Every structure is written in C-alpha cells, then in structure tokens.
Amino acid sequence: MRILFWGTPDFAVPPLRALLGEGHDVVGVVTQPDKPRGRSRTQLDPSPVKVVALEEGLPVLQPLKPRGDEFLEQMRELAPDISVVVAYGHILPKVVIDLPPQGTLNIHASLLPALRGAAPIQASILEGHEETGVTIMQMVPALDAGDMLHVLRTPIGAQTTYGELHDQLAEMGALAIVQALAMIESGVSRAVSQDDAASTYAPKIDRTMARLDFAKRAELVSRTARAFDPRPGAFAALRGVDVKLFGACVVGDGSDDALDEPMRASPPGTVRSANDDGLVVRCGEGAVRFLDVQPSGKPRMTVAAWSRGRGVNVGDMFDLPGEAAST
To answer: Where are the extended beta strands (E) located within 31-72?
Structure first.
C-alpha cells in the first residue's frame, strides 16, 4: 500500500517512523513550510517531520495551503493508495481527502467523539478526564467527524502533565495506525459512526487559558498547571511579574480539611511555603504545591533556587486574575 504521510510537529514523528519501520511504502510527506526564526527572520527551521523525511530520502511537499491544481498534480504524481494525517496543521479540502483510492486516515489524540478540535490533550487534563487515547478515523471535511476504525485507550494519572501525555499518545498513535492499516489490508477493518450528539470540542490554546486563578479550588488549579506543563507554561503574576509554575499537585486531598489553621486562614494566592519541598500556594479551597518555576525573562529553576535568590517569600500573594486585570 502506497502511503502519503501528512504531519508537522513532534507528535507526528513516531507514527511516521513506525510506518517506515514496519516496511510500509511511504511515497512522500506533506508538511508545513519551514518557519523563520531569529531577529532577522532569515533563518528557516524545518518541521520535525521534514527532518525525518529528509533523513529517509522521502519526497517532501510544503504547500502554503494544501489545495490548488499544482498541488493536486504533485499528489497524483506520487500515486498514493491512502493518506495518513496526524497534526498536519491545515484542514484538508474534500478533493484532497478523496484523491487516494482508499481515502484519508487521521490519527486524533482523544476518544472520539469527545474532544474534537485542535487541543484534545490539554483539554483532557483541564476537564479532569480519567482516561483518554487515540482514535484512527476516516477523514471527512467536517472537523474530526469521520467514521472510527480503531481506538486505543490509556488512563490519565492524578499528576500527569501535558508533556508526559503528549509523548505517550504520540507512541500510541504510532501503534494504532500500524494496527489499523494491518486490519484494512487483511479485510477485517470495520468503520463505526460517531455519535455527533455526544461530541465535545477542544479549542485552540490561547494565553488566557494558561493563567492560574488561585481563587478556584486546588484540583482545578492543578489541572490548569498540568495541562500546560511544560509548554506554554501556566502562569500567575507576583508583584507585577509573570511567573510560570510547573510540577503541580494538590496538597492532601485538595480540601481545606487537609490544611493547618494558618493556611486555612490565608486568602487565595498566598504563598505558605517556599523551600526544597516546593512552593505551596493557598487556593479557594485547598492548596497546590509546585516544584519548579520560571520567572519572566529567566530560565526554569527549582523553587528552592528561586527562594534563595529572594524571588519569593512566605506570605507573598499572587495576583488573582480580576485583580491583575484592574491594575
């Protein structure tokens, strides 16, 4: 089976390597154009997928948008039997989806129909899901709405971060697409329609979503921090300076009953300890402990190092979002 692979970021690399490792005939790769970097914007960085494709000697297509007669002709010249898409970064038009005789498959990082959209991994942590997974589906023009061919599941731990889950699901996606293609080739694959009425949406991440609100209960604060750890990093303002906070976990069971009296008497956002054991901050209910911090303009560091440098003291108070907006 001749496969045209579509992908751009790190998440797409394990599936591409798996297809190559299993001996599939990957006839080419479609990825986004190289990104300019540096102040001069003259240096160009290839996508992680392009790097692998060049190492493997695969043809690489990098259209600004995957459409138009010229691009379609390039696809036809590669003569794929099927396309495999994972985190490519553009919505594909129907003519592109339907061009390979066996259509186009997509690797999506959620248990569809839950969390269709751009950021399902972060959303699964933000929403407190106990499990997630990857779904191999037939791509259609509607967003993540195609029939499902194969699903793999995994639990989400109480302290799992976005980075950890991202890497785990990338490897699961690699396994799932190899298994799905094997089922197709052996004639045992069965498509299952999604229940559109049960669908939910995971929107694209923006900066405001990563702001920590210590007026909320500890479990919600912890979820927000873990959903953006290590990137882009959840943050809160201390003395007018944004600080990213990493390695979050709730103190005790997350309730006020787990706190001593001085901590219970502290208002939300109060720093109750800052030492080798981490940074403990009072929340609207309960408290959260963080292990690492990154003050604006500085590298990531341990809480102990930050405290020794007098970046934080017990009794300091992080701004609550409403307070920060009003200053």
So the answer is: 35-37, 43-45, 60-61
Q: Report the number of distinct structural domains present in the chain.
A: 2
268 and 295 housed in the same domain: yes
Q: How many whole angstroms separate alpha carbon 225 and alpha carbon 234?
A: 5
Residue 53 in 3-state DSSP? helix
Do 193 and 220 share a domain, yes or no?
no
Report how far apart the first and last C-alpha atoms of the chain are (Å, whole number): 61
> How far, in Å, are 39, 42, 54, 136 from residue 36 at the CA level?
9, 6, 19, 32
In this structure, the answer to whether residues 161 and 222 fall within a common structural domain is no
pLDDT tens track for 112-166: 999 999 999 999 999 999 999 999 999 999 999 999 999 999 999 999 999 999 9
Same domain, 160 and 218: no
Strand partners, 5: 29, 84
Range of the domain at 158: 2-202
Contact predicate 269/317, CB 8 Å: yes
Listed residue (277, 312, 308) closest to 291, CA to CA: 277
pLDDT digits (tens, 9 = 90+) for 53-70: 999 999 999 999 999 999
- 98 and 242 in a single domain? The answer is no
Are residues 223 and 180 part of one domain? Answer: no
